[in-house]
Amino acid sequence: MKKIYDEIHGYITLGDAEIEIVDSPEFQRLRRVKQTSLAYIVYPGATHTRFSHSLGTFYLASKVGEKLYNSGEINAEELQDLKMASLLHDIGQFPFSHAIEGYYLPQGFGNKELREYILEKSEIKDILEKYGFSISRILDIYHGNSLLSSIIDGEVDVDRIDYLMRDSRHTGVQLGKLDLDRLIDTISYTQSGITVEDKGIISLENFYISRLHMYQAVYYHKTILGYELFLRNLYEYMINYCNKDLKDSSNIREMVKEGLFPYWDDEWIISSLYNCLTEDIPLSIIQKIKNFMDRKGPKVVYDEVSYKEEKGYLEDIRNQLEKVGIPSDSIYPFEEKISIIDKNKIKILSKGREKKLKDYSATLLHEIPDFILIRRVYVDYEYAKKAREVLS
C-alpha cells in the first residue's frame, strides 16, 4: 500500500496492483502528457498532467464505488474493476491529447482504440493478469456494457468531475468549483443515466454550469484552440518531411509492441519539431515551426458561438480568403458541436418518487443549453490583418 498526496483530493491510497500499474513505463508516460494540451500558452499554470488527473479519477471512482459496495449495488470484484478501469482510463492519450489525436482519427484510430491496444499488448496486460483482473471486463466498462460504465463515462462521471476541478485550479479560472461530497452523495448511477435526489439539485446545476463555462473559457478558448489546430498542422508537416515512420497508425501499434510507446509524449513532439529545423525542408515550414515556438500562432478572424443549430458558411469564408491570396495551408477552419447536457438521461428523486427532468420544474437544468456550436476560422498571424479587412 502507498499514499500519494494530490493537490485536489489530498492523500490517495493505492493497493499493490495499482502501485505496479502506476510504476509501469506506460503509466509514467502520463507525467509527460499535459492534461490541457496547449492551455499553458494562455494560462501559464496549466502545466498539470494526465498522470495527476488519472490518480484523481481513480480516487473519485473509489469513493463512488465504495458507496455502491456498501449499499449492496455492486460486489467486491466490480469495485476492483471500477477502480482499475478509472486508473487506466487515459492510458491511451496522445501527446498533446486531442491536438495530435486529430491527425489519426481519419484512420479510425483515437485514444480509445489506443487504450484498448495497450491493455492487450503491453506490460499493463501482464500486471493485470498477475493480480487476477479480467481485461475483457475492464473493456466492457469502457464500451458501455456495464452499470459501472456511466461512472467513468456518463452524464456526471468521475472523469469530468476531476478535470473540471483540477483544470480550474491550475488555469486559475474559478469556474470549476464543485460541491464534491454533496454531488457524490446525492447521485445514483444507472445504465441509462443518473438519478439525483432533490436535495442535490443545486450541486448538479453547479456541475453543468461549470462545465458550460469551462468549455468556453478553457477547452475551446479561441487562442488555445488556434494553437491546437496549428500544432496538428505542424505535426502533419513533421511526419511528411522529418519522420515518415509515424504516418500510419499501425506504426503507433508497433511502438506499443516494441516497448517504445512510453516515450511518445509531449516532449517527443517538441524535440521532433526542433529536429525538423535542421532538416532540408521548405523555409515556409521552418518559419511555421519558429512561429509556434515564439507564440506567433494563428489569429481568429471569424468567431461564431451558438446554442442552436444554424447553417454555417465556413467554406464560403475560406474561398473569400483564398481569392485575396491567403494560402490554403494558412487557413484553419473549425466547426464542432459540443454536448453539454443530455436532459433525457437525468431523473429527479423527490418525495420518494422518481420523476423525469422534464416533469420537475424547480431547477435551472431546464435552461442550460444542450450543446454549444462553435465555428471559427483562423489564419496564420501574418495574414490576420488582410483577412479581417476582407471579412469586415
Keywords:
globular, alpha+beta, 3-stranded antiparallel sheet, 4-stranded mixed sheet, 392 residues, 18 helices, Hypothetical protein af1432, HD_assoc_2, 9 strands
Provide a brief overview of the structure:
This protein is an alpha+beta fold and 392 residues long. It has 18 helices and 9 strands.
Structure description:
The structure is a single chain. This protein is α+β, with helices and mostly antiparallel strands and 392 residues long. The protein has a domain at 2-222 and 345-358: Orthogonal Bundle (Hypothetical protein af1432), CATH 1.10.3210. The protein contains 18 helices and nine strands. The chain has helices at residues 16-23, 25-28, 50-70, 76-87, 98-104, 111-121, 123-130, 135-142, 149-152, 158-171, 180-186, 201-219, 222-241, 249-258, 266-276, 283-293, 314-323, 384-391, and strands spanning 2-6, 10-14, 187-190, 193-197, 299-306, 331-339, 346-350, 353-356, 371-379. The chain has a four-stranded mixed β-sheet. Strand 7 and strand 8 (353-356) form a beta hairpin. The chain is globular and about 65 Å long. The mean pLDDT is 95.
- What CATH architecture of the domain at 2-222 and 345-358 would you give? Orthogonal Bundle
List unreliable stretches of 5+ residues: none
> What's the total helix number?
18
Order of helices and strands: EEHHHHHHHHHHHEEHHHHHEHEEEEH
Largest sheet, in brief, is: 4 strands, mixed
What is the top-level CATH class of the domain at 2-222 and 345-358?
Mainly Alpha
The name of the CATH superfamily of the domain at 2-222 and 345-358 reads Hypothetical protein af1432
**Straight-line distance between termini:** 62 Å
Structural class: alpha+beta
Query: What does the overall shape look like?
Result: globular
User: Average pLDDT across residues?
Assistant: 95
The number of E-state strands comes to 9
Order of strands side by side in the largest beta sheet? 3-4-7-8
Gyration radius (Cα, Å) is 22 Å
Strand content is 5-15%
* Portion of residues within helices: 40-55%
CATH topology (fold) name of the domain at 2-222 and 345-358: Hypothetical protein af1432
